[in-house]
Amino acid sequence: MKKYLSVAKNTWAETFTYRLNFVVWRFRVVLQLLTIYFLWFAITIKSDNIFGYGQAQILTYVLGTSLINSFVFASRTYGVGNEINEGSLSNYLVKPVNYFMYHFARDLGDKAVNVIFSIVELSILFAILRPPLFLQTNPVLLLLTIVSTLIALILYFFLNFLIGLVGFWSPEVWAPRFIFMIVITFFAGGLFPLDILPSKIFAVFKILPFTYLLYFPLKIYLGQLAMSDIIIGMFVSLSWLVCIYLVVKFVWMQGLKVYTAWGK
Amino acid sequence: MNIKKYFKVWQITTLSATQIAFASRFGALIFIVGKLLRFAFFLFFLVIIASRTKVVADYSLWQVIFFYATFNFIDTTAQFFLREVYRFRAYVVSGNFDYFLTRPISPLFRSLFGGSDILDTVMLALSVIFIAVSAAKIGNINLTGIFIYAVLVANALIIALAIHILVLCIGVLTTEIDNSIMLYRDLTQMGRVPIDIYREPVTFLITFVIPVGIMMTYPAKALMNMLAAQSIIIAFVIGGLFLAGSLKLWRLSLKNYTSVST
């Protein structure tokens, strides 16, 4: 376990190697948040209730998306495809490390940076903009929000890892990731709460794994889900987690059979 | 400046970039589909918001689509012609930028236009279709409006060019930042909707300091006859100032280039 802690620490340190670059990157994160925040602010300012959301709830959703995004979507697994293509995967295969655990530890290091800076940035934005926010006080819902976020974190890790495994069969690892990021941002509810969609489309979304990455934890936090919906949601997300884990394991084993380390 | 020679250089570099882009046809296809999906998803979002709430700064659905299509046209045209800027930092870090300086063509031209991105042509065509359809749906458009629209789009592209030159300057002056062009992309995203919807001082900042509004919102407003004459003049003044300023900074940054990577 100690070695994985070191990996997480190294990832943390890596992030600060190019400090100016880091500052620009964080500035971009804030800018992206402000763009969507101001858009929603403009939409909600003229109407107290929009799609069943009050202004405080929708703005909490937008800002909450940013925070959960930094926790769930921060990942270093984008390197998996390249490591396979370049043959550097061999370095890990011959070492006494679990490749999955190694990347999960890197993810945790990355997430720690993201979460800490997101909290600081959101606090500053809160002090400047003073948005009306919804504060959840029910400890059970807060606990369920944390649990669903942790499930989302692991689910996203395996989804992302799976995309990287394309590298076993194709040198084109960036293009699938590009489309994956576009699809996931939309389907996870990064642009808007998914339940504003027409009910038939939303019903389809509810059976997809992406819904449980951002939308579901935030809906629990906002207290807009009945306990039965939360239980069903937890069951669906855990089922997806198990399915995708098994698929990743299977694809990994198949990939190792065709892996030739030809980049080395 | 020999335009014929430079056109030839652009043709050759674009052909090479195209061959690279299609080296993996699967990858090229995925990229095109990804761009189309990105366009469609945000359009879908706008349609839902504008059609069901009527609150996007009092614009009609087709007007909102027209703003978005214009944004996409300007954004994609800049990306299509100026894709080489995204690769510039690698040239400086690897020392290959030195070769740009020793060749008998302008290093600025080579750094800006050295390989257009053919994958953007699909998005360009789609943007034009959406501009034409939404403009027809809006109606009440005259020839003067179309002319001012075209000129303001050209002005927007000049501002985009100037900002890309500034990105090159940052690349020459410091190799530490590798995502300054993405910062520009993030800023311009604010122009996907008419900038009137934002609050002050944001509207002021994205109109005059970082002229996203002048680039993305002004042309569409001019076509809809919603733009005052003085705003059009300000747009051209800012376009000219940005271009002159960026060219000056480019010369200055070249003087400070140390060729340290070579």
From TrEMBL, chain A:
Record bears the keyword NADP: no
Residues of the signal peptide: none
Entry keyword annotation includes Membrane: yes
Keywords: Membrane, Transmembrane, Transmembrane helix
Transmembrane segments: 25-46, 58-78, 112-129, 141-168, 174-194, 201-218, 230-248
InterPro entries reported for this sequence: ABC-2_transporter-like (IPR010390)
The protein's name: ABC-2 type transporter domain-containing protein
Automatic annotation (TrEMBL), chain B:
Keyword Transmembrane helix: yes
Recorded superkingdom: Bacteria
Keywords: Membrane, Transmembrane, Transmembrane helix
Keyword set includes DNA-binding: no
Transmembrane segments: 26-49, 61-82, 118-140, 146-173, 202-220, 226-247
Protein name, as recorded: ABC transporter permease
Organism: Candidatus Curtissbacteria bacterium RIFCSPHIGHO2_01_FULL_41_13
